[in-house]
Amino acid sequence: MPTVLLVTDIFGDSAQLRATLARLDISAVVVSPYPEIRAFANETEAYQAFLTAGGLDAYYQRLLRVVPDQTNSDLKLMLGFSAGAAALWRFISNEQAQQFAGTVEAWLYYGGQIRHELNLEPKLTTSLRWSLETQFDVWQCHQAMQHKATVDSIVLPYPHGFINPQSKGFITNAAADFWSALASFLHASSPMPRK
Fold this sequence. Notes:
Rossmann fold; globular
């Protein structure tokens, strides 16, 4: 069964995420900023925990420790959300990612911190999905991606965090559409079950 390497946002791994993956029969290796499942009262609390855990640099280093274990797996997709998307952007742009080129895609959602590293060049075919942002010019970031041969960049009409029920930007129907598209993508390449 095809596998997804799912790199979470600042809320990290959760029982709710695991339940969604199970319901959709998605095989995933979940990478979180934290070594355990945590619960947060709000985004401010989650963000503070993320900073305490070392922020984006530490998250990227954590990702570097996990990815080599996927080299001989059925990995089909690297998927990142917010801080996870930014950490994944760094990874797919380094030479270590070259081994996955042509066989693994990357989907990065609302990775606002990518704006600080627009010069990076991903080695994998990458779908970059920006959300509407108020803290920076998302359209400028989108424009910066237009010359990158491996990147398909789109600005979605949704707020940051629209896929995560824990986020204040969560939108039920947009999240459902995302999960449906993910399941279709992963299961389309699965062999038909034998009767």
